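Entry for the shared binder. Reason: the reviewer on the internal report wants the predicted structure included alongside the sequence.
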Amino acid sequence: MRELFISVKRYSIGLLVVIGGIGLAMAISPLSISGRGSDGEIIAEGAGTTLIHGGTGAPSFTPVITTIAFHAERTGSGVTGSFDCLALMPEANTGSQSGQFTVNAMNVVGQVTGLTVSGNTATLTGTSTITGLGAGPNVSFTFVVHRGGPGATAVLTVSSLPTVPFHELLVEGSFRVHGED
């Protein structure tokens, strides 16, 4: 009986050593569970619905909502990522269609090529193709995003409309900034 107990004890210790070794190997391995290498460290990411502060501006102040999604990660050669922002406005300023956000005011589809982080704020830069307001190919953009959930803020500026920054307030979703704290 004592020999059986010793055998089980040795087996248990060996099993713990193997499990611990696997755990240690996973912790220091350059590949994460998601399959991204250490070069694919996501620094900023998020998605959600925002409201453009002031809408279209004076004199009409037509409301504008956006659906936004982005991510930026460090790579061996710099930064890569994507940025998408679809801005919709209502069909009409008054009446039953004033609450139907179906008109494409602007669509920005971009590739992130630059990234800086300062505390809870990330600044993503890159080039995009834009339809609607500010339309054009190879349009430079800057997106300054503050970490948080609803209530977090962001500002989008595009080179085709340099004097019109879009101040966005997150109403649904989450913006995440990893790195410096």
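Summary line for the report: Residues 1-30 form one domain.
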